[in-house]
Design brief:
heterodimer; A: alpha+beta; Alpha-Beta Plaits; 2 domains; 72% helix; B: 229 residues; Rossmann fold; six-stranded mixed beta sheet; 7 helices; binds adenosine-5'-triphosphate; binds magnesium ion
């Protein structure tokens, strides 16, 4: 019963605090809304970037060179093994490989005509599914294939893949740094504004302590205010994101169509996203008010 | 209820506000603290209330040594004390009833019960018709009675009052004094710091006189002679 009574007291006190200082709370809420809106946008951007990297990775083919001495059945067994794991595999016989080379070399291929034996080994052209296009999985796949007796070599354009992933990694790092800066700046602004709110109610705090309130009792309404600000800020940010996606986003994607962005599909559920933003908002608001209250009570 | 052993309180840069004070207040006693301005009356009450630590010496309140109390335990000690300070310290935006109920809110008493008990206490101090007023709409004497109601509503073992009749005319002062005496009769130990010597003399209670931080006399009340620190 006592916990319920206290919760009611905190709620009343928080509501009263917001009512008496609408400006301070509005500043804090808007700061949180801007930060959450930016985070939401950045996350969509990261999502697009992932898809872009994924689609570029689709160009990467893995060529598996096979030992010409093993019987064709063993080669087919390797190909079937890969197919069972969801990869598109084309078997290229030595003859077909030579024909392709001749076609690619054109007139310069005259010198190849005289060869009696097939000079090229048989090979498999493998298209890797999207889920396995990360450099690490390609590397693992190559290592695994090299371990098979019938395989003499694996080539998947290692350098291109590594460079692409290095770029993606750098962008991701920059994103994290920006994220930390954004969260830090938001916390500073929110805790500074909340400190104003606490300062304006220092008399109330003093009187509460006079009649035996614990620090936690004094803190609770301010923490509640911070969390409520975060949730209100998240609501604003979600409204902003919806508006942004309906107006600016389609224009942006036609503008960037030269990048051949794959069509929007598999987006995270909007409810999930809203929930995450609300939680992030409440967390930021709580952390900001916690910092403010602590600095005040220490003083 | 209160025991002070060789208590000294010094503020940096000033002569000490209290010097080697020894004082014992029994459970259920009513004690006046008097002395000229700057004698250390408020300082003594603040030490008992744990608003500040003593520079030297030991203070026991209800058997607890407050000289070495943890910061986190102070609220629980205060829940057993009512305080009435010179500046009323009422919340200007809350009603009289809410101000009194605050003492119970911090204990987690359910709202309905807190309001009921606050109402009863306000009736006891004669303010049942002002429960929904804001404090600033009240006269000085009425505000002082609200403060007393807030101090007494959770039935504390100890009541500390600093100049509770400070700005009131003699008639109102008498009213306030009888409220404090009523609380004392109900079992609360009461310590009152005051300048109002006529009132003190009329009461026939124990009087501790301070001067420049020292106890210079301690007389009256149930035990007539006491050791002077
Ligand atoms: N926070 C403080 N900082 C420095 N000196 C203080 C502080 N509080 C009190 N003092 C000093 O301690 C001495 C005692 O003050 P105190 O307020 O206890 O006197 P008092 O007996 O209550 O006086 P009054 O009757 O005027 O209320 C005074 O000399 C005062 O200047
Ligand atoms: Mg004083």
């Amino acid at each position: 019963m006592s916990a319920v009574a206290k919760a009611q007291t905190f709620w009343r006190s928080a509501m009263e605090g917001i009512r008496h200082q609408p400006f301070v709370h509005a500043v804090s809420t808007i700061t949180l809304a801007i930060a959450l809106f930016t985070l939401g946008l950045a996350r969509s951007a990261a999502h697009e970037l992932d898809r872009l990297v994924g689609s570029l990775g689709g160009e990467v083919r893995v060529t598996v060179y096979l030992d010409p001495r093993v019987p064709p059945a063993a080669r087919t067994a390797v190909a079937d093994g890969l197919r069972r794991r969801g990869m598109a595999v084309e078997e290229v016989s030595p003859h077909a490989a030579l024909e392709r080379l001749v076609r690619e070399l054109g007139p310069a291929a005259e010198s190849l005509r005289g060869l009696s034996e097939d000079p090229l080994p048989p090979s498999l052209e493998v298209r890797v599914p999207e889920s396995m296009r990360a450099p690490a999985s390609l590397r693992a796949l190559a290592a695994e294939l090299r371990g098979i007796a019938a395989v003499t070599g694996v080539d998947y354009g290692e350098q291109a893949v590594e460079r692409l992933s290095a770029i993606a990694r750098a962008v991701r790092w920059a994103g994290w740094v920006a994220f930390v800066v954004l969260v830090g700046a938001t916390l500073i602004i929110v805790s500074a504004t909340l400190q104003l709110a606490i300062y304006a109610r220092r008399e109330e705090v003093e009187i509460q302590k006079l009649v035996g309130a614990t620090d936690r009792f004094v803190q609770a309404p301010f923490l509640l205010e911070g969390a409520l600000q975060g949730i209100a800020g998240a609501a604003l940010a979600i409204a902003g994101l919806i508006a942004f996606r309906q107006t600016v986003s389609p224009q942006l994607s036609t503008l960037l169509s030269f990048l051949r962005l794959p069509g929007a599909g598999a987006d995270a559920s909007p409810w999930m996203e809203a929930l995450e933003l609300a939680l992030a908002g409440a967390g930021l608001g709580l952390a900001g008010s916690y910092l403010a209250v602590h600095r005040f009570l220490r003083a | 209820m209160i025991q002070m052993f060789h208590v000294t309180k010094a503020y940096p840069g000033d002569p000490p506000a209290l010097v080697d004070v020894n004082l014992s207040v029994e459970k259920g006693e009513f004690v006046f603290l008097t002395g000229p301005s700057g004698a250390g009356k408020t300082t003594l009450l603040r030490l008992v209330f744990c608003a500040e630590p003593a520079t030297r010496g030991q203070i026991l309140v209800g058997g607890r040594n407050v000289a070495r109390i943890r910061q986190g335990s102070i609220p629980f000690l205060r829940r057993n004390m009512g305080v009435v300070f010179q500046d009323f310290k009422l919340l200007p935006h809350r009603t009289v009833l809410d101000n009194v109920a605050l003492s119970l809110d911090v204990l987690g008493v359910p709202r309905a019960e807190a309001r009921q008990r606050a109402n009863r206490m306000l009736k006891l101090v004669g303010l049942q018709h002002k429960t929904e007023s804001l404090p600033l709409k009240l006269s000085g004497g009425e505000q002082q009675r609200v403060v007393i109601a807030r101090a007494l509503v959770n039935e504390p073992a100890l009541l500390l009052a600093d100049e509770p009749t400070g700005n009131l005319d003699p008639e109102l002062s008498q009213e306030i004094m009888s409220l404090l005496q009523d609380a004392n009769v109900r079992g609360t130990t009461v310590v009152v710091a005051t300048h109002d010597l006529p009132m003190v003399e009329r009461s026939g209670k124990r009087v501790v006189r301070l001067d420049r931080g020292r106890i210079v006399s301690d007389a009256g009340g149930p035990t007539v002679v006491r050791r002077v620190g």
